[in-house]
Amino acid sequence: MTPRTIESERPAIKALPEPPDLPAPLPEPAVEDIRLETVLAALSDPLRLRIVRKLLLESEKFDHTCGWFGLDRPKSSLTHHFKALREAGITRQRQYGLERRSHVRIADLDARFPGLLELVADWTPPER
User: Fold this and answer.
1) Half-sphere exposure at residue 74, Cβ-oriented, CA atoms within 13 angstroms
2) Could you report the per-residue pLDDT of 51-109, keeping only the tens digit for each?
3) Is the CB of residue 92 less than 8 Å from the CB of residue 105?
4) Which residues have CB under 8 Å from 8's CB, separation 6+?
5) Given the DSSP bridges, would you call strands 91-96 and 64-65 parallel, antiparallel or unpaired?
6) pTM attached to this predicted model
7) Do residues 40 and 84 make contact, with C-beta atoms less than 8 angstroms apart?
8) CA-CA distance, 118 to 120, in Å (whole number)?
9) Helix (H) or strand (E) holding 51
């Protein structure tokens, strides 16, 4: 494996602007309470790592429903994974009527753990 040395070869993280009039976020840790070991534990699950990477690289709008990810998992399983990401401080979720939408807390995670999200974006998922 050859290490990457040219910054332009890295995948570009999409940080979309926050639209006005968003619903309040669901409960989540404050920036100063986000713990590295909790973040790493949440990202140790390949499905959650894939979710975060997709949000970082492929976001089409500010936040997304779990259906946007195209994951073939029961809703209860997906709810668990999205809750784990939110409670770790990785994603922010908002309730829009009956659906929850998620986005990565890019600025918060960059402030706490510079370079972490670039590693997630640079990760190559295994072939299925």
Assistant:
1) 3
2) 999 999 998 889 998 889 888 888 888 999 999 999 999 999 999 999 999 999 999 99
3) yes
4) none
5) unpaired
6) 0.88
7) no
8) 5
9) helix 46-58
d(CA 38, CA 88): 6
For residue 47, the one-letter residue type is L
Q: Which residue is associated with the tokens 């909790």?
A: 38
Q: How far apart are CA 56 and CA 115, in angstroms?
A: 13
- The two structure tokens encoding residue 99: 């659906």
CA 121/CA 116 separation, integer angstroms: 9
- What the block records as the tokens of 97 is 């009527």
Structure tokens at 69: 């990810």
Q: Map tokens 């029961």 to a residue.
A: 74
User: What letter would DSSP give residue 97?
Assistant: T
